[in-house]
Specification:
The chain is of the alpha/beta class and 344 residues long. 36% of the residues lie in helices and 16% in strands. It has a single domain, classed as Spore Coat Polysaccharide Biosynthesis Protein SpsA, Chain A (Alpha-Beta Complex). It has a five-stranded mixed sheet with strand order 4-3-2-5-10, with helices on both faces. It has a three-stranded parallel sheet with strand order 1-11-7, with no helix packed on it. Strands 6-13-12 form a three-stranded mixed sheet. Helix 8 runs parallel beside helix 11 and helix 12 (300-312) runs parallel beside helix 13 (329-343). The chain is globular, with a radius of gyration of 19 Å. It starts with 5 loop residues before the first strand and ends with a helix.
Length: 344
């Protein structure tokens, strides 16, 4: 049974729900995934393995960068100084901001670069991989990773001080999301039918955000409910994945294998989430504490409204900015100006 207790609103500092002082008995790391998809060597590598029409996750925007890693990393250092270590998982690259930080020798111990070859050790035949789901599946294999860690994409940004107790209790992770019906599988089935009609091939399967979560929930337990989360930092535990790997031989390796995203894959963060809920070790927060930007879709006036909301809401601890590279010049300028004012 999942733990049913909730924490109120936001946490962070003196916010409701925070443990006094925010201190916990175990260290916590952060893990960021990043790639400079405009690096000519990376572009050539992707093209060499591009599976062609019908594949998911091959769009250039998935690998594009507007230096979001600078803001994401800087925000962690500014607003979560209690983190033991920040691991940045990359494909043979080092962000410029890390090179700058490493001018301070103390930062070399706090900010580490982890290559795909390291987390795929023993499975080098699967490299290179470009699927975020494949890479995320292997994150718990990072050497010297803390038992408790927070996983973020490089387009997730802390915008206020947070405490360890915003992410974990002594028992386990604090989850941000909600239960929905697994009837969402009907949507996935309809997407499959449409894809087949469009000639995407017999091996094609829908690989959307909720579809990956649904695949994960089915691995953990039967039933009619799915714990669905949005684009927000995710607290995870290394031992949860290690136990699953030991009891389900071959499942983790199979999810690490696709070079590009495939509909057969489960969302590994969702797997960890559902395993914690099934074990009764998770707590569900009352709010996701996040303001979400769809930069490629939101109009400039809507972006300004969201920026004002993020500034005004004391319980808004995070923002996520999807597809900044595809946004218009005004939207890009407004969002980057906000990030500079808030973080740098």
């Amino acid at each position: 049974m999942e733990q049913t207790g909730e924490i109120a609103g936001a946490a962070g500092g003196d916010h409701p729900g925070a443990v006094e002082g925010g201190a916990l008995s175990q260290p916590i790391d952060a893990v960021l995934t990043w790639v400079d998809g405009e690096d000519p060597a990376h572009v050539a590598k992707r093209k060499a393995y591009d599976p062609g029409f019908g594949a998911a996750g091959v769009e250039a925007t998935r690998f594009a960068s507007r230096d979001e890693i600078r803001f994401s990393l800087s925000a962690l250092l500014k607003f979560a100084p209690w983190l033991r270590c920040i691991h940045i998982v990359t494909d043979g690259q080092t962000p410029a901001v890390v090179e700058e930080l490493w001018a301070d020798p103390a930062m070399r111990a706090r900010v580490k670069i982890v290559d795909h070859a390291v987390i795929y050790r023993g499975h080098e035949d699967l490299l290179p991989v470009f699927s975020s789901r494949s890479i995320e599946t292997a994150l718990y294999r990072i050497p010297d990773l803390a038992e408790r860690y927070i996983y973020l994409n490089d387009d997730f940004f802390l915008i206020r001080p947070v405490q360890a107790s915003d992410f974990f209790t002594e028992t386990g992770p604090i989850l941000r999301g909600r239960w929905i019906t697994r009837a969402y599988g009907l949507v996935v089935w309809m997407q499959l039918v449409v894809g087949r009609l469009k000639g995407r091939g017999k091996n094609w399967r829908p690989s959307g955000f909720k579809a990956g979560q649904l695949n994960a929930a089915r691995l953990v337990a039967p039933g009619w409910r799915l714990f669905s989360f949005g684009h927000t930092p995710h607290p995870l535990r290394r031992s949860t994945f290690q136990r699953f790997e030991a009891s389900h031989p071959g499942v983790i390796e199979a999810n690490m294998a696709p070079r590009f995203r495939h509909g057969s894959q489960f969302n590994p963060t969702s797997l960890g989430t559902h395993l914690e809920l099934a074990a009764g070790t998770a707590t569900v927060a009352a709010s996701d504490n996040t303001v979400y930007f769809r930069a490629d879709v939101d109009r400039p006036d809507r972006v300004r409204e969201k920026i004002a909301e993020a500034e005004a809401r004391e319980d808004a601890l995070f923002i996520c900015v999807n597809s900044l590279d595809q946004a218009g010049s005004q939207v890009q300028a407004d969002i980057l100006d906000f990030l500079r004012r808030r973080i740098l």
